[in-house]
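Q: Structure tokens for this one, please.
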Amino acid sequence: MQREIIQTHDGSTTIHIKEWDECYHSKHGAIQEAQHVFIKNGLSLFQNKEVSILEIGFGTGLNAFITFLEARKMNQSIHYIGVEAYPISTEELVSMNYVEELDANGEKEIFEKMHQSNWDEKVELSDHFSLEKRKQFFQEIEDTGQYDLIYFDAFGYRVQPELWSTAIFSKMFASLKDKGILVTYAARGVIKRSMIEAGFTVEKMAGPPGKREMFRATKSM
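A: Here is the predicted structure, written as tokens:
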């Protein structure tokens, strides 16, 4: 499929898939979306704790990089697993302007290392942040009781409804620890029903810029 780099409304870049008219991040602001959905409504609930995170859709590495910066600021220890079946290209990587837009030029090497590190190998990016990228399909995830937090950042229901099914959310439910949390930018009724069928308690939250609502789901045994 043909992909192009576009600039979102907050100045940060993302990848646009022409055939689907689907972006890796919100056109209203890639960085704003990541900070609102995954940091404000996800990571911030685990302050002063060691956190194990599973990201569904590693993609451009934006969510991982913002999480790294936040962990450093909060002096928080994070174990980060990013799952991606179709990694972005080197050409696409160098077109991402996240380091500059986040005023994180001192950490440019970290962002590059996130992408250059080997798949299926755990790397220590700092004394507080480890990363393991898995090149696999979401349907292949078989973890049990391993994560505190899931960033669910798959392509939208409109183009890939199979990624938002009860079967997938059952895998997410199984992979979380008790009281674990899943956050996503999505807010469709059909997605909420799939989450509930998988066992989650679902809250509707205010969405990021350009989006009215989003979901946060909790695993309660």
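A few notes: Residues 93 and 112 are 8 Å apart (CA to CA). DSSP finds seven helices and eleven strands in the chain.
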